[in-house]
Amino acid sequence: MHAHHSHLIEVDLKSLRPTQITVGMAEVEQKRLYWKNLEAEYRKAYMENHCFPGVLGPKDRYYIVDHHHLGLSLIEEDIKTVKLIMLKDLSALNIDEFWVVMDHNQWVHPYDAKGQRCGFDAIPKKITELVDDPYRSLAGEVRQAGGFPKDQQPFSEFLWADFFRRRISAKMIRNQQSQALAEAMQLAHSQAASHLPGWSGQTAGS
Q1: Are residues 64 and 79 in the same domain?
Q2: What is the pLDDT of residues 15-52, one digit of tens each?
Q3: H-state helical runs in 94-200
Q4: Checking CA distances to 80, which of 12, 103, 147, 201 falls within 20 to 30 Å?
Q5: What's 20's DSSP letter?
Q6: Same domain, 125 and 72
Q7: Same domain membership, residue 141 and residue 121
Q8: pTM for this predicted structure
Q9: Which residues of 39-65 are buried (b: 16+ CB within 10 A; e: fewer)?
Q10: Does 205 have pLDDT greater than 90?
Q11: Tens digits of per-residue pLDDT, 52-109?
Q12: pLDDT tens-digit profile of 131-169?
């Protein structure tokens, strides 16, 4: 039995380190508004259902492997602590070996806002230093609109974001948001997207 997989600890939210470079700021804002509008009696249950999966790395620092959008939204709402599920203790490794192991486990996504892979040293040291990728926001909108389901594959929405990045202009996302979403929904159900996680092949409304 792997008892450490259920090891739950309370941690300082701002001290958590990210394992990606970007987020979709529009999605962060959505989560922030959801929290702001959540009645006080439901907030504790919400937090208990949204524990942060993480890995203990060099110098006893915790690195989260999911919930980056939620983490940033809660920091902006002045939440101090969260619960973390420790997946693995890699604190004995040096930083270079640590990232190699993280990469092997698909626990890191070192891609910038242009979809280009970077060195691990490009990953921010703080959640608050994450950079906006509008295509990640678009992917989140498409998922919420039923374009594809949430998938357990790590960083699956970044794969969708990169797919849209190659087919929809940044100018359209900025200036014609509803049109960009409509085009993205159509693309999500096209044969071109058949290699992506959660692809259904079903046209919207069918």
Answers
A1: yes
A2: 999 999 999 999 999 999 999 999 999 999 999 999 99
A3: 95-104, 134-144, 156-165, 170-175, 177-188
A4: 103
A5: B
A6: yes
A7: no
A8: 0.89
A9: eeeeeeeebeeeebbbbbbbeebbbbb
A10: no
A11: 999 999 999 999 999 999 999 999 999 999 999 999 999 999 999 999 999 999 999 9
A12: 999 999 999 999 999 999 988 888 999 999 999 999 999
Q: Which residues contact 20 (CB under 8 A, 6 or more apart)?
A: 68, 108, 109, 110, 111, 123, 130, 155, 158
Nearest to 107 by CA among 125, 87, 122: 87
Q: Which two structure tokens, joined as six digits, stand for 199?
A: 């692809």
> What residue numbers bound the domain in which 160 lies?
134-193
- Which of 132, 183, 139, 169 shows the shortest CA–CA distance to 157? 139
Residue-level length of the chain: 206
Coil, strand or helix at 63: strand
Beta bridge partners of 17: 63
- pLDDT number for residue 176: 96
Token readout for 87 is 């997946």
Place of tokens 């937090």: 47
Do β-strands 52-56 and 22-23 pair in parallel, antiparallel, or remain unpaired? unpaired
Please check whether residues 116 and 176 belong to one and the same domain: no
170 phi/psi in degrees, rounded to 5: -65, -35
